[in-house]
Amino acid sequence: MAQRLPGVDVLLVGFGWTGAIMAQELTAAGHDVLAIERGSWRETSTDFAPSFIQDELRYRYHGHLFEQTAQETLTFRNTPDQTALPMRRLGSFLPGTGVGGSILHWNGQAFRFLPYDFEIRRQTAARYGEAMIPPDMTLQDWGVTYDELEPHYTRWEELCGISGQTGNLKGQKQAGGNPFEGPRSKPYPTPPMKQTYGPMLFGEAAASLKLHPFPCPSGNMSQAYTNPLGVSMAPCTYCGFCEKFGCGNYSKASAQTTILPVLMQRKNFTLRTECEVTRINLDGSGAHATGVTYVDAHGNEFEQPAELVIVCAYILHNVHLLMASGIGTRYDPATGQGTLGKNYCYQLTPSVDVFFDDKLLNPFVGAGALGMIVDDWNGDNFDHAGLGFIHGGYIGGYMTTGRPIETELLPEGTPKWGAKWKQAFVKNYLTSMSLSLMGSVMPNKANYLDLDPTYRDVYGRPLMRMTYDFKQNELKLQDFAMGKMVDIANAMKPREIKKSPRGPHYDIAPYQSTHNTGGAIMGVNRRESVVNRYLQHWDVPNLFVVGASAFPHNSGYNPTGTVSALALWAATAIRDQYLKHPGPLVQS
Amino acid sequence: MRQRALLTLAASGALIGAGMLVFGPLAHGQIGDFSRQERGRELVAAGDCVACHTAPDGQPFAGNRPIGTPFGTIYSANITPDAETGIGAWNEEQFYRAMHEGVASDGRRLYPAFPYPWFTKATRGDVDDIRAYLRTLEPVRSAQRPNEFTWPLNHRIAMAGWNRLFFTPGEFKPDKNQSADWNRGAYLVEGLGHCGACHTPKDVFGADKTSQRYQGSEIQNWFAPNLTGDKRTGLGTWSDQDIVAFLKAGHNNRTTAYGPMAEVVKDSTSKMSDADLKAIAIYLKSLPAAPAEEPSAAQGTAMSAGKSIYGDQCSACHQLGGDGVKNMFPSLKGSAAVQSRQPLSVVRLILNGGHPASGPAIPNALSMPSFGWKLSDDQVAAVATYIRNAWGNQAEPVSAGDVKALRDSVQAVNSAY
User: Fold this and answer.
1) Of A515, A537, A553, A581, catalytic
2) Which of A316, A550, B357, B394 has the most CB within a 10 Å radius?
3) Is residue A152 annotated as part of the catalytic site, yes or no?
């Protein structure tokens, strides 16, 4: 029997990045907030100190900061006619656990989505006709526009000190930036990072092909920065231990480096760690959340009443928690009915490796967001007529890391082990780099999340089941983009190149990106979406679901910027509208 | 470095048992006393009373913080207005006598770890205001633990002799030739602030070496830096504003408060008015430099080994040129603390790391990580020698033996609690 605790005003499920944003916005406005986090407390000086953080085995391969599958996992299949099996070791994506969540171990690639993304269905149909959208592509607009999100993107960039080169300031194109980006109200808070030789070669090659290279906007600091909360960040040292690691130098934007020092001093904020929420509780009407049930580290169960519940976990857990709580109607691919679990998307990341004889690229000097980008084939920045796919992705020439175990770029035909492997490794380590596509993924009626009929988690709840495969849109985009990447690679004049496409079927074993999206999507009506434009649940107005779970499709960019802007947008609506007049913010 | 400047008889076990048999009126302050209580609150902050009179995880001002001294461990007194276990039964006269003469309400002599040799400088009005504030606190029932002192110091009568030799009661006398700010600063530094308790070296009796006032001293395995005008090891190159910022936030563009000073900033100086901090700065800046010492040159091998270790382990934060990052990572280049006469603090920070003060002004708690687990005594000695002598710095080299002694000593203290 769960012990019933005294009620709270605002309860956050999960205390990663969106939880930190919500807590900061709402406590600053004077509201009492309780956050419940399944993992442990973490801070820079004790958990990621530079005296030990650069430990590839501990963090990358033993997954020290990641979700442990003994605690929670999912089952997977490519298509609905297969039987899903549980993931006993995560691979393709690595959700975080613990305070700070997944942003703790991001690379820092800090993009905004294009204005096109938020009105993708309307704009695609307007430019190419409805027939451009295949019947199995469950494409829809987001219910929010770029212009509405723009101030929140700006606030996010200021919170995190994002380093970058502005490309479009209030409609005026700026030299050296991304000419395709949506208009910004302000320039980036800090200048772009200093590029090393590899990205410079990429940029020169792209320019020679009349493309528009620009430096990747970066959550790794190009210089010391103090954010509007008064929290300071230090210049990046280009150590190359970003993705899959916490930053020991206070140089990478995260909850720990931007918000927590201020938030944790507030008397109206309470954090309960090592407590996992297992269920959101509803009253008899089914239209009002009464709070949550959670289990602490000793296995004791508690009922925590709350006036307002905001779900801020990783996207897979947001969706799973709604399903496990029986909130909303689960999506059925056979009928197209239901919304919960619909439009699960991912990211398409083929690459082309380039090998030089005469150029030392020194990959050990790196940073998660150190690279040059071209956006010429992203979104609707180019004419798709006759191509057979919509959207696209950016192509990047990054030097994110030269970490010795993980960095293994070897030419075609190299043996997998032995003396020849060693020779090839030594020969190519300093003289190779990789170009990659951050490819968009369009929603498809056969890609979705639901509950597994067989396997259960440690709390007895059915595991989340993922059904996902690359579809025609992705495969045609990949063919197109591979050609463009090969053109740029050849323009870099290497000794040789190696193409590494994905697919044709999605493989969940090798790491690709922790860019899962969808499943509890936002939209303009309750028939097509789980939450409204403010991320408020259509059926339960005192429940908000924040994170990339709200994305109706995934764009050709890393999602963190848009996750953050949406969280700030939702926090603003909760603070300025919902808490003043609780109830549905959009009438359906 | 092993030559220990003996501590002041740290911390007052002193108010023990005071007033046990006297039952006074209820403790809470009277309506209408607000301005006195508010002045008292500021003075209590200036005196940093809460630091010594609060046990780890204990109620503020309820005492029983264990304080290690070379003469044994003593426990601080409960100064909440609880009639039986605190000072609720003390009258104004008794309270003033404790502050002014180091004598408790029942006539027992207090140990000078309770800094009455400094507090004696406080005016009667200020002491009364302090009492007025303390009486507004919630009374906490918490009996003081007995001190663990060695003979003969377990006999309080010993303090009578000590007082005769080393203690002159008397309120602060302003110097008419100095500005009002200077006099205010002197009053705070010499009186309630009791800065000299840590920053002035002590003789074998635990009394100030008056010829070396504020020239820096070892305390609890830290080195409280030189506060005189010395350009290399003191405040000679600091501006008034540097001092104010440091006392206000625990950080400035040069350095960070660590160890016991981080607590002082958190509990005391961060709560003082800008005007008082400025006065302190003006007074400290007037302290003459100690005669220059010429350190012996660091040896080449230690310097080259230290430089390599510094590049690998330290430069990510403190930067290759030792400049640090403003408001984040202290500059080591030109740092008085780094070049101080004894390298205790430098070595201790390398071995154990340290937690700086944090607060609204600079919210990041930018702790220094520990390197004691990964660097040997030789390596710590080399890198400490390097930072004390690189970039124009100049200070005595550090030996592996120095490092080992401190490592053992700090471990012994840590394991005692």
Assistant:
1) A515
2) A550
3) no
